[in-house]
Amino acid sequence: MAGAAFHPPVPAGGIDRAAGADFPRLARRLFGNVRLDFTGAGNRESRLVSVALGPCRLSRLSADRHMVHGDRVTEGDAPDMVKLIIQTKGHSWLHQSGRRLPVGPSSVVLYDPANPYLLANPEAVDLLMLQVPRGCLPVEGLGVSGRPLAASLIPGSMHRVLFSMMESTICEIETLDEAERTRLGNSMMELVRGMLEAASEAPPVPRSLDLLRARIKDYVAANLSRPELGAPEIARRMGCSLRYVYRAFETEGMTPADYIWSERLRKAAELLSRQPMAPGMIGEVAFSLGFSSSAHFSRAFRNRFHQSPTEWSRSART
């Protein structure tokens, strides 16, 4: 309606959304002092979903063909964030610091918006964008003379793990609480740090699968009491594919399920060693560690330690 007042998009559950004419306004608020120039049919089909992940921000954008002019992005109150984009549809060109970089499906581009740039999108695009605070990244890895860095989504690479995390997180964002979002944001930030350190030949951070395995082990340790704990849930919580959860444990010669049951039995042995045997104790330990029954627990314990839980408890104090 002509003359109607503009009401900015209202976040739902900490999630910012915009479409059509609201798209450029929200983009400027979240991404800095950018100017979006839509051509042809305009921006009627453009969509933006964005959420803060602790120190980082993750966004999914679907936009009609347009130009992004980033001449003064970090002026004023604009967020001082480095941007990483992973395009899933369409072909674009990033012009920055004398470099003309092609951006297409399966490409990863990291650039510093403090340096003027032009992002040309001659066709409709879909992409994921991760913004990471500049102060959380190694200065030496931000490119030579402000030039953007590019890579491909090679299977098993750090970039592929990051993409899986970004994609899963934005799809599951409605189900994640603030603490889970912050943990995912910190993990994504560590992966970006690893990419920059590798590009600058600084001492590398642990490999991406090593980092993922360490995160999984922390999650398992905090959730051993839950009978439903398994690889599918872990993949969802880690923000990666099920295949990567299995790959994380390949170097240790076990599956995620093997590790979970091994940890349950290790913790059970520890509890039985510390506490004097009492009526009902075997069942309490079994159920506190996610076993379906005390009989199931006793069989698994004997297979692992060659003693019954009762025998183990008594021998630990003799």
UniProtKB/TrEMBL annotation:
HTH araC/xylS-type domain location: 214-315
Pfam families named in the record: AraC_binding_2 (PF14525), HTH_18 (PF12833)
InterPro entries, alphabetized: AraC-bd_2 (IPR035418), AraC_XylS_family_regulators (IPR050204), Homeodomain-like_sf (IPR009057), HTH_AraC (IPR018060), Tscrpt_reg_AraC-type_HTH (IPR020449)
Keyword Ribonucleoprotein: no
Name under which the protein is recorded: AraC family transcriptional activator of tynA and feaB
Signal peptide boundaries: none
Keyword terms: DNA-binding, Transcription, Transcription regulation
Keyword Acyltransferase: no
Highest rank taxon of the organism: Bacteria
GO molecular function terms attached to this record: DNA-binding transcription factor activity; sequence-specific DNA binding
